[in-house]
């Protein structure tokens, strides 16, 4: 990349930067932490202070269109209007007062007590997976270990059959296409939306079953939750079931596999958590800061305002780069160094403000149990490849595969 070329977020997708995009993010930040990117037609926010401002500023709306839909014709968008209508009722795409009502009602169902009840189930699941893997000479962590954990846990929590997991993977991948911020053809988008429509129909069927035969699960809790006469509509339940499943599935897979890869690349940090497992709670926060599974979130300016010395115009798109923000030296000393003893709880891996990730306690619990148990049972675990491949997408940072030897 020519040093005179104006920097762009898109540069992080070039093959030479996929392994370490943080050099690009550093260049963006040094150029300007609030930077207009001509290629993405958006303000790129790479400074921690400015990110915090945007994520809690009511002038920055979450009612933004899915970036990937820009490749679609008006006719195709109209064709998929019923699907897009349901997706628009997801918490990540609405503002107060609707967001306040919806979040309050979902919180009444997705309680800390319900999450804590999953602890024994998660531990048993991880033990069973490792019992199976210990017989193998070579193990691929992403698919053999990281994938089944959140898929099974969220299925158990919501009350959906675990034998549909393979289909869930296809559906959540399709939903990810809508969010990943990468260029897609119109046909690819139509295929993704068609699969998401199937996913929504699946939850619609489960809701009908719960109305006829109530069960003790999260779907049932969402159906009956009420406050001062307010309830969730069926569209809101369906859309946010999909969101809870997809968000609780993909990002936790990436949290486990990215975190393990970071530890295996830093033997001193690996030894630290192995010799003192009590460090793992803090270590998980540091791992999420170091390789954030969710890299970007976006907002749209409701009105003109100043951000630092930059004039933001009404309608401008703002991309908060969580991965870059979590490497801002103004907030984290020596940010490109992994330090499991770092107090990194103020990282923005789960966002900030009213849209802070509702499922973060469950994700943290799963990642901590998975990594602690894996490293305790297999203290000699090591990489079989020092250069695994990263997926070339902007919104999520995750490995294609992570091959290891356990013994």
TrEMBL record:
<dbReference type="InterPro" id="IPR036396">
    <property type="entry name" value="Cyt_P450_sf"/>
</dbReference>
<dbReference type="GO" id="GO:0004497">
    <property type="term" value="F:monooxygenase activity"/>
</dbReference>
<keyword id="KW-0503">Monooxygenase</keyword>
<dbReference type="GO" id="GO:0005506">
    <property type="term" value="F:iron ion binding"/>
</dbReference>
<keyword id="KW-0349">Heme</keyword>
<dbReference type="InterPro" id="IPR017972">
    <property type="entry name" value="Cyt_P450_CS"/>
</dbReference>
<keyword id="KW-0560">Oxidoreductase</keyword>
<dbReference type="InterPro" id="IPR001128">
    <property type="entry name" value="Cyt_P450"/>
</dbReference>
<protein>
    <submittedName>
        <fullName>Cytochrome P450</fullName>
    </submittedName>
</protein>
<dbReference type="GO" id="GO:0020037">
    <property type="term" value="F:heme binding"/>
</dbReference>
<comment type="similarity">
    <text>Belongs to the cytochrome P450 family.</text>
</comment>
<keyword id="KW-0408">Iron</keyword>
<keyword id="KW-0479">Metal-binding</keyword>
<dbReference type="Pfam" id="PF00067">
    <property type="entry name" value="p450"/>
</dbReference>
<dbReference type="InterPro" id="IPR002397">
    <property type="entry name" value="Cyt_P450_B"/>
</dbReference>
<dbReference type="GO" id="GO:0016705">
    <property type="term" value="F:oxidoreductase activity, acting on paired donors, with incorporation or reduction of molecular oxygen"/>
</dbReference>
């Amino acid at each position: 990349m020519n040093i005179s070329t104006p920097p762009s977020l898109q540069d992080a997708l070039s093959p030479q930067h996929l392994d370490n995009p943080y050099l690009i993010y550093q260049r963006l930040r040094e150029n300007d932490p609030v930077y207009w990117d001509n290629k993405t037609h958006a303000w790129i926010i790479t400074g921690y202070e400015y990110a915090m401002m945007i994520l809690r500023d009511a002038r920055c709306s979450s009612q933004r269109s899915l970036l990937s839909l820009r490749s679609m014709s008006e006719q195709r968008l109209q064709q998929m209007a019923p699907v897009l209508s349901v997706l628009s009722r997801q918490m990540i795409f609405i503002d107060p007062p609707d967001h306040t009502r919806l979040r309050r009602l979902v919180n009444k169902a997705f309680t800390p007590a319900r999450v804590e009840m999953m602890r024994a189930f998660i531990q048993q699941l991880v033990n069973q997976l490792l019992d199976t893997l210990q017989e193998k000479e070579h193990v691929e962590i992403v698919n053999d270990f990281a994938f089944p954990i959140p898929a099974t846990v969220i299925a158990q929590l919501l009350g959906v059959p675990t034998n549909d997991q393979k289909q869930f993977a296809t559906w959540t991948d399709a939903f990810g296409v809508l969010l990943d911020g990468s260029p897609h053809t119109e046909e690819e988008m139509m295929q993704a939306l068609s699969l998401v429509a199937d996913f929504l129909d699946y939850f619609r069927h489960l809701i009908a079953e719960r109305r006829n035969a109530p069960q003790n699960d999260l779907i049932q809790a969402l159906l009956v939750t009420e406050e001062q006469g307010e309830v969730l509509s069926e569209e809101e339940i369906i859309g946010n079931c999909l969101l809870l499943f997809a968000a609780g599935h993909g990002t936790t897979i990436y949290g486990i596999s990215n975190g393990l890869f970071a530890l295996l690349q830093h033997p001193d940090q690996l030894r630290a958590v192995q010799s003192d497992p009590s460090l793992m709670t803090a270590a998980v926060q540091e791992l999420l800061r170091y390789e954030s599974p969710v890299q970007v979130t976006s907002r749209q300016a409701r009105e003109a305002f100043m951000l630092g010395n930059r004039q933001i115009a009404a309608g401008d798109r703002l991309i908060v780069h969580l991965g870059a923000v979590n490497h801002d030296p103004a907030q984290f000393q020596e940010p490109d160094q992994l330090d499991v003893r770092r107090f990194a709880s103020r990282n923005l891996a789960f966002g900030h403000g009213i849209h802070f990730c509702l499922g973060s306690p469950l994700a943290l619990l799963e990642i901590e149990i998975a990594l602690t148990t894996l490293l305790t049972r297999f203290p000699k675990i090591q990489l079989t490849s020092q250069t695994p491949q990263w997926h070339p997408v902007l919104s999520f940072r995750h490995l294609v595969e992570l091959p290891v030897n356990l013994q």
